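Lecture 7 notes: from sequence to structure.

We start with a single chain of 195 residues. Read the sequence below before looking at the structure.
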Amino acid sequence: VRITGDPYPREQVLVLVIGDVHLPFRATELPPKFKALLVPNKIQHVLCTGNLCSKEMQDYLRSLANDLHAVRGDFDENDTLPEHKVVTIGAFRIGLCHGHQIVPWGDADALASLQRQLGCDILVSGHTHAFEAHERGGKLFINPGSATGAFNTIIPEPMPSFVLLDLQGTLATTYVYELVNGEVGVKKIDHTKAS
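Now the structure, written as tokens:
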């Protein structure tokens, strides 16, 4: 899709950011209302923070977009997945980490330290099973939460969530999809890459 009316036309790139699925050990399925939204040929890239826990889930994500990037979560048995990864999509370097390595878990200072080590514009991490997005020092930090709402020791009943990143030039629009009382709610956050 080409965005028109812009003095600097930009290609729209959709990136699914998902993680902490824990199928079939902590959850029985991806919520059907999420599955209805996630259809093949709409998304160009998938970034997964780990804890897929099954080849079937990995195959499902690959059916949404051939360009699947995943890191190993603390419950993944696939030893070929890396601990950290940096991918370049459009104008953005995106760092990917499960998050169990961040101490304390989800800590903004520890995440900022990892972002600097990886040299990325956007850092995606998981493990806490709760959606979080914030800017710090001109960088964007995203935790997509748990797509299934799988329980963990931090939050006993997390809200199922995932993120779609809409990347257009130096603009990253984050859409967080959350399942609230059986209905899908969407929030939007805009971020412009620091020059």
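The longest helix spans residues 108-118. Keep this in mind for problem set 3.
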